[in-house]
Amino acid sequence: xxxxxxxxxxxLVPEGTGLLAVGGMHMHNNPMELVRELVRRRRGARRLLTSxxxxxxxxxxxxxxLVDEVATAYIGFEHLGLAPAYxxxxxxxxxxxxxxxxxxxxxxxxxxxxxxPFTALPAGLELSDVSSANPEHFHTxxxxxxxxxxxxxAPLRPDVALIHALAAxxxxxxxxxxxxxxxxxxxxxxxxxxxQVERMANAGEIAAQPAESVLPGFLVTAVVVAPRGCLPTxxxxxxxxxxxxxxxxxxLARTEDGFAEYLQINGMVATGVTA
Amino acid sequence: xxxxxxxxxxELMAAVMARQLRPSEVAIMGAVSALPQAACRLAQLxxxxxxxxxxxxxxxxxxxxxPLVASSCDERLLNAEAVMTLPDVILVEGRxxxxxxxxxxxxxxxxxxxxxxxxxxxxxxxxxxxxxxxxxxxVSRAGRVVIYSMxxxxxTFVERVDFVSGPGFPADPRELRGGGPSLIxxxxxxxxxxxGRHLARLATLHxxxxxxxxxxxxxxxxxLPVKLETTPAPTPEELSILRRLDPAxxxxxxx
Lengths: 275, 255
Known about the structure:
The structure holds 2 protein chains of 2 kinds. Chain A is globular. Chain A is built from 10 helices and 11 strands. The longest helix of chain A is centred in the middle third of the chain and has 13 residues. The two termini of chain A are about 15 Å apart. Chain A is of the alpha/beta class. By secondary structure, chain B is of the alpha/beta class. Chain B folds into 2 domains: about 120 residues, Glutaconate Coenzyme A-transferase, CATH 3.40.1080; about 130 residues, Glutaconate Coenzyme A-transferase (3-Layer(aba) Sandwich). Helix content of chain B is about 20%, strand content about 25%. In chain B, helix 1 crosses helix 2 and helix 2 packs across helix 5. Chain B is globular, with a radius of gyration of 17 Å. The two termini of chain B are about 25 Å apart. The mean pLDDT of chain B is about 95. The chains are: A alpha/beta, B alpha/beta. At the A-B interface, helix 4 and helix 5 of A face helix 3 and strand 9 of B.
C-alpha cells in the first residue's frame, strides 16, 4: 500500500497509459511530488484529464511534453497569470485541447464512478461553444421522457488518478482535511488511484473523526507519503501556496529554455531509473 | 458636505456590485473572485442582510473574509457559515432555481454579454489560449449575470467574442434558461442591457471618466442612455467595511 513516489509511478503509470486524471484545484492540493516523478521518468499519458480548474501540475506535464491531449475546463494561475506552458503548447498545436466545462467533468466522473453509459446535462449549457468544440465528448439526443433535445456527455473513467490528501492509514483509508474538491470523485471513477499524503494517519485519528475518512482503502491502489509534497501549491490544513515560487515558475516557463531550466533547478531532468 | 474620501477602482467596483444584491438572494462566483466576494460580504453588512454567497471552487458558503484572499480555493475561505463539496456546488448550479446572481468575467466580453475565457482567435489555432471557462456555461441558468472586468480596452470589449464560454443573450433570447446578463462593471463605467434589444447600454461613468474615453476603449458601440449619470462613489461606511475585510489591499492593487 505505501510506496515511494518512484515505485508508485514506475509500477502504476505504465508506458501507454490512456487517461490520466490529476487532482487539486487551482494552486491548492496539486499532487506535485507524483507529478515531478512523472516528469523525472518521462512518464505521461495519451490524454490528461484535469479537475475543473488546474494549475501547476497540468502546466508542467504539458510543458514537459508528456501528454498528447488535455481534456480541461481551466488551466491557469488565477490572479498570478495565465499558464505559460499550456499557452505555448495549445497555441503551437503541440497539445490538443478537448474543451470541457465543470459540469461535464463532475457529471462525467459520476458517470464513470457509477457505471452510467453517459450523462445528460442541464438545458442552457448547449449555448456555450464548449460542447460544439468537442464533438467527440458531447452529443445531442432526444430525451425519451419529454421528447426534448438534450445535451449529453461521455463518462470519464481515468486509467490512473493522482490525488492529494492530508493522511492515510496502513489500509489505505484516506483522511481529508480542508476542501477535497473533485479528488474523491476522480478516485471513485479511476481504475488505479495513487494518493499522495503529507503523513501517515496518527493512531486513532480516523477513529476520532471517521467522517473525514471519506475515501476507503478498497478504492486506493497506493499511498505515497510526501511531506510538503504539494509545494509550491498549497496543501489544505498543512501549508499555503508558495507565491514567490509560483511567480518564479511563471517567469521562467515563459520560454522553452526557461521551462527546461526550471526542470533542471527543481531536479526534474530524466533520471532513467526504473522501478 | 462630507469630505471626499479617496478610494480605489477596486473599491468602487466592489461597492457598485454590492448594490446589485438583495437580501436572501444566492450569489456565486468562480476563479479570481476576490472582488465579487468582497462585494457580497459588503452587501451582507449593508443593504442585503441575509444574502448567501458561494465562494467559487472552495465550496465555502458565506465565508467571513477575515481576511479577503486572492485565490478562490484558499483554505482560509473555509472559515465560513457552511462548506459544500465542490461536486455538490456544481450539481446545484444546474437546478436553475437556486442561483440568483452569477458573477462572470472574460478575456473577451461582447455587447450581448457573451464572455470568453477560452481561446482567442480560431479555437483550433488560438493566437492566445485563455485558461478556460470552468463553470461559465452555467450562467445561462442563473437569475441574472453580473459581469466584471479589471481591464477596459478594445482587446477585452469586442464586437463578438471568438468563443462563447459564458453565454450572453442568444439571437433568440427564449433559448436562455435564466435572466441573462444584467450589468457590466469595469474600471471606467457600468453598462446595463437594453431590455428590448438585449445589447449593452452605457449606464454610468465613473467619476473623472469621459464618454470619449469609454467609446475609445470599447470595441463595440454601446447603446447610449438618455441621461448619463456618474457612478455613485463608495460611502465612508462602505469603504470602512471594505478596508476592514481587506487589510492586504487586494482591492487597492493597481487601482
